[in-house]
Amino acid sequence: ILNVEQSPQSLHVQEGDSTNFTCSFPSSNFYALHWYRWETAKSPEALFVMTLNGDEKKKGRISATLNTKEGYSYLYIKGSQPEDSATYLCAFINAGNMLTFGGGTRLMVKP
Amino acid sequence: DAGVIQSPRHEVTEMGQEVTLRCKPISGHNSLFWYRQTMMRGLELLIYFNNNVPIDDSGMPEDRFSAKMPNASFSTLKIQPSEPRDSAVYFCASSRDRGLVEQYFGPGTRLTVT
After folding, report:
1. Fewest Cβ atoms nearer than 10 Å: which of A7, A66, A72, B111?
2. DSSP, residue by residue, B53-96
3. How far apart are CA B5 and CA B104, in angstroms?
């Protein structure tokens, strides 16, 4: 079992606030890192797939960075909206085909 | 495309019964994943197939669980005999590659074992 940790576990912010959270993973045998958005009563949906150290991805107000040497990825949301409320999951895949999801960060944005 | 299709969407069964969950991946995807979601353990990978071959089944909890992928368009996850602790949401996901592209998740099957 690979140690993939996300912090914080939950986050409450006001509409308009910008926020960020972290996914930590083993710094060896890196293959890929995925970010997913999971709304209550729905299925996870992919946000980003990151494969190279230094990768930066952006989709609208959401962006992510990747540091494979130190084993972390940040997800940023600029100007949070109530519809951003969801659980954000990262998944680490190593070169040996092992895939592990983090425990997720539950984001709640208050109007 | 209809996306990943799972059936049934809900299953309620009694302890000791056999349960079969079904998944149809997106056409053209060669990787298929079975996950279990519980409050205690979050989203856990149970087994992963690539080109219909099981690659990593280290997440399968015990011998009561088995999974097959007889062809590229169909997979089953079977629990026999089922126990109350197997109650969870089971997701199937597929992708065009094991890690370099995103996975597409099905709607899940909510299993309740009484």
Report:
1. A7
2. EEEE-TT--STTEEEEEEETTEEEEEESS--GGG-EEEEEEEES
3. 10
Q: How far apart are CA A90 and CA A33, in angstroms?
A: 7
- pLDDT single digits (tens) B66-105: 999 999 999 999 999 999 999 999 999 999 987 888 999 9
Calculate what percentage of chain B has a pLDDT beyond 70.
99
Determine contact: B43 vs chain A, CB below 8 A: yes
Q: Is B54 on the interface with A (CB under 8 A)?
A: no
Q: What is the CA radius of gyration of chain B?
A: 13
A28, with CB counted inside 10 A (0-12, 13-18, 19+), is exposed
Nearest-Cα residue of chain B relative to residue A91: B99
- Say whether A71 sits in a helix, a strand or coil: coil
Rounded average pLDDT over A42-53: 94
A99 to B48: CB separation less than 8 angstroms, yes or no: yes
